[in-house]
Amino acid sequence: MATTKRIVRLEEDVVNRIAAGEVIQRPANAIKEMFENALDAGASSISVVVKSGGLKMLQIQDDGHGINRKDMDIVCERFTTSKLTKFEDLTTIATHGFRGEALASISHVAHLSIISRTKDSPCAYKAHYRDGKLTPPKPGKPSDPKPCAGNQGTQITVEDLFFNVPTRRRALKSPSDELNRIMDIMSRYAVHNSGVGVSLKKHGETSPLLRTTPGATTRDNIAAIYGSKVANELLEIEDADEELAFKVRGFITNANYSVKKPTLLLFINHRAVHSTNIRKALDSVYAAYLPRHTHCFAYISLEIKPEHVDVNVHPTKKEVHFLHEEDIVERLQQLVSKRLVGGNMSRTFQTQM
Ligand code: ADP
Ligand code: MG
Q1: 152 lines ligand 1 (CB under 6 A)
Q2: Could you tell me the distance, in angstroms and rounded to a whole number, from the CA of residue 64 to the centre of ligand 2?
Q3: Considering the domain boundaries, does residue 152 fall inside one?
Q4: Are residues 196 and 61 in the same domain?
Q5: Residue range 92-140, pLDDT digits in tens
Q6: How many CB atoms within 10 Å of residue 64?
Q7: CA distances from 144 to 59, 72, 100, 138, 207 (A)
Q8: Is 161 a domain residue?
Q9: Are strands 124-130 and 45-51 parallel, antiparallel or unpaired?
Q10: Do both 279 and 323 map to the same domain?
């Protein structure tokens, strides 16, 4: 029989590393968090460079408002944020982030460095972080943020993700799979944020894997990322309801387009999320139009009163639920259904002319 072991309190850094591994499970999560930070900072251009699917290095550069020199000491501590001060703010929060956990988590499971410059600062500052705190770039050197050259905005470099979590590191063995996940999340955000130029490159390569320009429309971005075959068959959708307190806009493919693999770019209050209910609802409408076992492409942005969605969910909890979900999903179904009929009628009409 096993003997009873004494209960011991875990060391703080062990606790932090475990918690960090829950927030940041793979390179794509780190990218999503940092991408949202860049958007929160008002960036109009966001470029990402990755080495080895982000496992060796991922670097994200934005032209947003930057981080104050004075905040660079605490920016990577847990629960430090510029976006929330009281619990009540959660109900009206308009930024992606609010819990101040992302950078802290990354700094517990990787080597993290930041170069940032605000509009009023005469230069940029660079600092290195470990376990939430400033750390010297090399042993024996001072760890203060150091003045350096740089444009307004922020560049964050994450190296050797999970170097200190060997089990996690081993579980992520395919850099190409990790790269695909990074492409997927960045593609979604690039489509949703027309007005922001986005690029993704592999380190050392000149041609980007993904690229949108700040002046491009949502339709242009869908064409640039998902191809003109999809983009040529898009129908725009838009609807709102005061009683249910929601707004929806997006693009769906018409009945002439079908693919084996479904693509649903779903945003709720500007966060990329998953909803099995919405996916199933779309499939059931399209089932009347598309060949069996094929699907549509859809980009849907739902805006719901913040107090009707629980935003205080865990960062990795992608599946969301919200108030009046059934009614809203039904409205969405009706909208898509109506649009598909209308869209195809106008097409037949055009070809007959
Ligand atoms: P949160 O986004 O929840 O506030 P994070 O750990 O993601 O927490 O970021 C902590 C803080 O660091 C943010 O509140 C913000 O003030 C600052 N920050 C992070 N990334 C950027 C960025 N790219 N540009 C400007 N400020 C940033
Ligand atoms: Mg954040």
Answers
A1: no
A2: 14
A3: yes
A4: yes
A5: 767 777 678 899 999 999 999 999 999 999 999 999 999 999 999 988 9
A6: 21
A7: 21, 9, 21, 12, 36
A8: yes
A9: unpaired
A10: yes
Per the structure, the complete domain to which residue 158 belongs is given by 12-211
**Based on the domain organization, do 148 and 119 belong to the same domain?**
yes
Cβ distance 115 to 155 under 8 Å? Answer: yes
Examine the domain organization and report whether 97 and 238 are in the same domain: no
Q: For 279-301, how does the pLDDT look when each residue is reduced to its tens digit (9 = 90+)?
A: 999 999 999 999 999 999 999 99
CB of 178 closer than 6 angstroms to any ligand 1 atom: no
Q: Percentages helix, strand, coil for the chain, rounded to the nearest 5? A: 35, 25, 40
Residue 62 Cβ inside 6 Å of ligand 1? The answer reads yes
Matching residue, tokens 């997006």? 250
ipTM: 0.98
**How far apart are the two ends of the chain, measured CA to CA in Å?**
85
Chosen domain end from 211, 243, 268? 211
- Give the separation between CA 7 and CA 293, rounded to whole angstroms: 53
18 or 209, which is more confident? 209
Q: Tell me: the pLDDT tens digits for 136-158?
A: 998 898 888 999 999 999 999 99
Average pLDDT, the chain: 90
pTM of the model: 0.91
Same domain, 247 and 325: yes
The alpha carbon of 81 and the centre of ligand 1 are apart by a number of angstroms equal to 6
β-pairing, 45-51 with 234-241? unpaired
Find the CATH number of the domain harbouring 278: 3.30.230.10
Same domain for 237 and 199:
no
Q: Which residues contact 272 (CB under 8 A, 6 or more apart)?
A: 32, 185, 188, 189, 192, 265, 266, 318
Whole-number Å distance between alpha carbons of 311 and 155: 27
Would residue 3 count as lying in a domain? no
- State whether 204 and 258 are in the same domain: no
205 & 237 share domain: no
